[in-house]
UniProtKB/TrEMBL annotation:
It comes from the Bacteria. This is Uncharacterized protein. It comes from Muricoccus vinaceus.
Amino acid sequence: MTPSPPGAWQPTRRGVLGAALAAPAAAQDTWPDLARMALAPIRAAAAAADGPVLLKSFTTGGGEDFDRVHAEVAFTYDNALAGLALLAGGERALAARIADALRLVQEQDRHWRDGRLRNAYAAGRVHAEAPRSARPPGWWDAARGQWLEDGYQAGSAAGPAAFAMLLWTALGDAPFLRAAARAADWLEGLRAPAGFRGGTIGHEPSPDVLPWVSTEQNLDLAVAFARLGRNAAAEHASGFVRSMWMPPERRFAMGLTPEGAVNPGSALDANLWPALAWPGQGFEGALDWVLARHGLPAGAPAAELDGLDFNDDRDGIWLEGTAQAALLLRRLGRGALAARLAATMARHRRPDGWIAAASIPWLTTGLGTGLRPGAADFLYPARGHLAANAWAALTALDASPFDQAKASSR
């Protein structure tokens, strides 16, 4: 759907599916259906590979620059999240295929040997005997007559590496724990006076350092370090996250700017994830902040929201974040609104089974990729998105990436 512009909300007639899902009795029935629906294309893509595999992040096929640049992109974060969704859905062997692929690309990087992970790799089968399969994605530029790679995709941010660690530690096999420890070694090198820096952007051998410090990424690191028993690093990351809590507004700041100033911007994940990771510690109030300032239609009461935007400009619905909010709503006993958001996820499922990343062609985030200094050029498209399906599946299964890792059958 295309949301109403800010201030233009009016009560509207809802579809039969949405109305049914909004009822508390029906809400109990919708989660198994959403889990099957969201997990099906992930399961099929992983099963088709017959071995370690990285899954493509977005559906492509149009004629825009996005389609060319993302034709073979498998983002590390998206794949780690997909592995966690498969694990939550009982598909341990398929989750291990993704985890093993991430282990192989870490080991076989064409340049780095320090445990870092790149933000993205070429989608497809990763072969232990063919190191060249562990490469950053790219595309052929006919006008230039050369193969190109995106500097963000070839770079290494802290958050995606932390999510790989969450998958590896959730599985718990010795090779995965060794890979997680190697990643942690590199991540600890990003330590700043407060928290951990964002990572690097650009190509080897001298990528640029990302000097900002992110609330969301430090939350990821706090959980990942703790799972490995690296308590000092975990406390350094969690201490930073807690320092970003803004009591008068009962929400989190986004982090620190490159200059060290607090970035007071409103980010959905930075406000929802601490309450998921650290339940009962007083951070649940951030959910109401998010609903009031990210919810769509703009101006609607919380109980009548259809979805949430990445940031507070509310130009469209971010389906991945909408799923995150639905999971927290479920855990806080607000099932009717959670089911209403589930109906939105279902409405944005494409015929091929993938849920769109955004409800509008190009959803703004207010963030930059770092490739154009000062430009807020990080956008989400209305394309099928692996992470949207993964979060929808996790929400439907009442599973969080930050839940205590549980031993699972080998």
